[in-house]
């Protein structure tokens, strides 16, 4: 928490920080990937090699995740694009924003919270033609994303199919609390989907945010807490 605190803007003690007024600087890497020293909390080489592997497995991978914006500490991966309409209107489908920490993560309504290191945090852009809004309603995006998230967890690797994770319709991810008694199991929220939409130049521009507790420590429940019940595997393939 001390590292997180030092990264936050200071206040006078009487007012909250207006993060929308904090200037964000974008550093573009067009010819080479950022080094590990530049982004110590995110390995771009591993990310892109893994992305390429999965793209080869899919029949139509499109460009999902190929263009990535990463920030070690962001307000919110949704807000960073949704609150910047001039940027948003230029972004292609599949453009993805990821972060290690969110200091103003978005929830339902006006809920705002801190998402610490150890969470899987990202948002992706979907540009949907307006003339398809009746036959292909954009409301289904968040439903499909929620289903895909649960399926991704349970198909991550051998043994993960036993991971006690389920979807609380329509967009919350719940997991079995490993501390609950076997005769009275309880489930707790470990993630969710946030969908926000704007309309520009004939397209519905959806910012689809996904957040899942993966390895972050207590008091929250994360996927790492469930592994003993699922298998002896670990969340990271390289541990």
From TrEMBL:
SUPFAM superfamilies: Class II aaRS and biotin synthetases. PANTHER family: BIOTIN PROTEIN LIGASE, BIOTIN--PROTEIN LIGASE. InterPro entries: aa-tRNA-synth_II/BPL/LPL, BPL_LPL_catalytic. Residues 49-239 form the BPL/LPL catalytic domain. One of its GO terms (molecular function) is biotin--[biotin carboxyl-carrier protein] ligase activity. This is BPL/LPL catalytic domain-containing protein. It comes from Bionectria ochroleuca. It comes from the Eukaryota. The lineage of its organism: Eukaryota, Fungi, Dikarya, Ascomycota, Pezizomycotina. GO terms for cellular component: cytoplasm.
């Amino acid at each position: 928490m001390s590292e997180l605190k030092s990264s936050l803007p200071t206040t006078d003690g009487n007012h909250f920080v207006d993060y929308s007024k904090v200037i964000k600087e974008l550093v573009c890497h067009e010819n080479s990937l950022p080094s590990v020293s530049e982004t110590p909390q995110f390995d771009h080489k591993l990310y892109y090699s893994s992305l390429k592997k999965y793209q080869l497995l899919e029949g139509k991978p499109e460009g999902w995740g190929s263009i990535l914006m990463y920030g070690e500490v962001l307000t919110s991966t949704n807000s960073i694009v949704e609150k910047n309409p001039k940027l948003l209107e230029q972004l292609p489908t599949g453009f993805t924003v990821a972060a290690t920490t969110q200091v103003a993560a978005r929830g339902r309504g006006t809920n705002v919270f801190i998402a610490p290191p150890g969470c899987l945090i990202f948002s992706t852009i979907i540009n949907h033609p307006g003339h398809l809004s009746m036959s292909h309603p954009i409301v289904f995006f968040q439903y499909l994303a929620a289903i895909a998230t649960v399926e991704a967890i349970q198909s991550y690797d051998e043994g993960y199919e036993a991971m006690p994770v389920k979807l609380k319709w329509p967009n919350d991810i719940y997991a079995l609390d490993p501390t609950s008694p076997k005769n009275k199991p309880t489930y707790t929220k470990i993630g969710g989907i946030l969908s926000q939409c704007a309309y520009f130049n004939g397209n519905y521009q959806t910012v689809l945010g996904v957040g899942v507790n993966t390895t972050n420590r207590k008091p929250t429940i994360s996927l790492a807490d469930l592994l003993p019940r699922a298998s002896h595997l670990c969340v990271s393939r390289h541990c």
